[in-house]
Amino acid sequence: MIGQLLTGRYLILEKLGGGGFSETYLARDKYLPHHPLCVVKSLQLSDSSTLSPETALQLFETEAKLLEQLGQHHAQIPTLLAYSHEQEQAYLIQEYIEGESLRHWLTRQQRLTIEAAVKLLSEMLSILTYLHSRRIAHCDIKPSNIIRRKRDGKLVLIDFGAACQVPETPSGPSTSSVTNELQMAIGTPDYMPDEQKLGYTQLNSDLYALGILVIHLLTGILPRQFQRDLISGQLDWQTHLADSTPNPRLIALLNRMVQSDFRDRYQQATDVLADLQALPMTKRFQSPRVRGLQGLVPKVAFPAMAGILLGAVGIQYGHTQSQLPELWLNQLEQRFHPSPVQLTMMHDVSVQAGVDRMVIAPNNRILVTAGSDHALRLWSLPTGTLFNTLMKHGATITALNISQNSKLLVSGREDGSIDLWDLSTGRLLRSFAGHRQPVMAVAISPDGSTVVSGCKEGKIRRWDAQTGVRLQTMQLLRGGVTALTYDETSDRLISASSDSARADASARQIQVWDLNSSKLVRTFVGHTATIDGLQVAGDHMLFSVGKDRGLMWDLKREELVTVFPQDSADAIATSFNEQNIVTVHDNGSIRVWMRKAGRLVQRETGALGRNLDVALSPNHRYLVSWSADRRLRVWQLNASNIQ
Predict the structure, then answer these.
(1) Is 64 helix (H, G, I), strand (E, B) or coil?
(2) 258 Cβ partners below 8 Å, 6+ apart?
(3) Rounded to 5 degrees, what angle do the CA atoms 383, 384, 388 make?
(4) How far is CA 172 from CA 9, 194, 201, 209, 633, in A?
(5) pTM for the complete prediction?
(6) How far apart are CA 441 and CA 453, in angstroms?
(7) So which residues are the catalytic ones?
(8) What digits encode the pLDDT tens for the residues 456-470?
(9) Please, what are the domains in the chain?
């Protein structure tokens, strides 16, 4: 489903997981401003599932109805956004909860403290009180179904695929819309009480699951490993506690929650809450700062006000485990509007030959322009003077790139040829031939040993810079190459492709190649229009700019991390470093973005005029523009603000 546009609205980005009768995907909502993330759940029976298709569909429809009923009235339950059938397939679309599940926390082999367990119990019991007041049992409370939400630190209960309506006076197996088959077939055995396994689900079956979950988090021991005393019926979990002086009243409370017979348990969540509030320790944990909850509550460090420069491009972050909360950033943005970008013209040069494209070397000292006369011209950026002209009669130059050490220049041409130049001497080192279509993108490896080129028909070729020997050829499955860049090392290549014959989102992709094996190892889908450029920073971050907007990817975690507003779309030049991104647009506007938050912090509209070519220096200090009046202008951006 990756790349599919569901109902013409929801763009499927990546698979999140799968269960017995469904698969979940991360998606974007094309219809809403800023294209927010959402979760698409698809009805899909696994090979090992014992459910019939009719039963699975009934479960799926029940989940949709319950989410519609519950999510809009409780902030800690996901909201149902849509329910649809497309091509004989059922889907439900729900709110995306950004955060960490308790299962991920468990994988780090951490344990809850007693104090943190009280806080978790209190929050989860409040959610269950809401559910049970409507006679709804969740039926699948487990670590992976509880997420600590990133923006506010609250717990959110997800996955209502096993939920059911419990009648007030059951005389046998549940007679609700969820049948006996459903009750026995789904759920997680480690957290299910006996009556639920037999199809007699009670509301306090959820209390059992919650008690077992907390015990699991306190001890780090899988529930199936506990033994139940044949005489007392108690589980032998207390001996596994790290705390040598456990609170006896909390232990008694948890033991009552996990009684084997549902009649011996707490009957209502409100009863557990009442006993929990009566614990002597409870009052200490009503502050937002919860001791002992390391790894469950995101740690947030707010910068001192002295560290915030009004009108500056970036906000200095403290060394935290997460970014500033969304709410705080929104308030900051409302209070401090983007300041204007300040431009100072340094040089204004008349150039009679037209300029088709430009690039500035990583050393921020050399500008290369490709002229309409098929010549390459080298300029001193500090002085604005022309110091060399590289002539090679042939086709129009369609792509330019410079090595990281600013010593090599590679150019691609419309006739499919590639030239490698010594930037310091202007000498043509060698030419590469092999593409039958125009070269659309070129790149030089970080170590300067290889050159790559991508053409309009989707072929990517890799060449030895010393010998000119072709080392590899990789073919895209569809579309032509629109951008190329190396990762931090010379072993991985990143390409962007676009297929003009297809209108769906899968026609615009980002590919990650392992050059040692010539294999495609990862494909990212997220853009809804042609991808014009790719840039990699030293911390595994990739910025892709398209005609739709800019996107930020974490290459190490292999996920999309930041979606920039539509104002970032269709940039004709970009420059990207560890703190900021500068984009220049065809209407002459300049925009500076805070990289981590994807927020606009500086802007200048129309200062450069329209219909121009632009190059930006890697250090964000210089901007070069070429306009229809045949003037090449070198500008200095406000150096006091841009980091």
Answers:
(1) helix
(2) 208, 211, 212, 215, 235, 265
(3) 105
(4) 44, 14, 10, 21, 83
(5) 0.53
(6) 6
(7) 140
(8) 999 999 999 999 999
(9) 5-95 (3.30.200.20), 99-285 (1.10.510.10), 305-335 (no CATH), 339-637 (2.130.10.10)
